[in-house]
Amino acid sequence: MTDAGARKLAEDGWTIVEDDGFLNLVGPLWHRANDTTGEYAIVAQAKHKNRRGFVQGGLLMTLADRSLGMAARAGSGSSAVVTIQMDTHFIDAAKIGEILISTPRVVRSTRTLIFLNTELTAEGRCVVMASGVFKIMKGAG
pTM to 2 decimals? Predict the structure, then answer.
């Protein structure tokens, strides 16, 4: 992990989201509470680079999907949601060493579906815009 990026996130009140699944391989994923659905971040590391030396698009999509899903759970009050659809627009390249931040927002919520969008930034630049539709599941997640 890029130590400077991790130190900066920790100093700014971010905490690591514990996960022993897929995110354990690509993360760590960081979280910071805000007035709405929270913010999520990953420090771009060498393991995230594509053949051109920039951050792999799949990592950006992973951050978007996970942050939208976590915001969907928070916004719906459900312990389980599943991605129905996600649209991703790549705006700019993210560089290794940059802190990637997702700030999801609930657009609309119904009894069974929740619609969200997010902007992923790297050092203040928009690198991805994504929107997602999530199914709100019944019962425990």
Answer: 0.93
115, 109 in Cβ contact below 8 A?
Answer: yes
CATH code (residue 118): 3.10.129.10
Q: What is the pLDDT of residues 35-71, one digit of tens each?
A: 888 999 999 999 999 999 999 999 999 999 999 999 9
Retrieve residue 17's tokens: 């989201």
The count of structural domains within the chain is 1
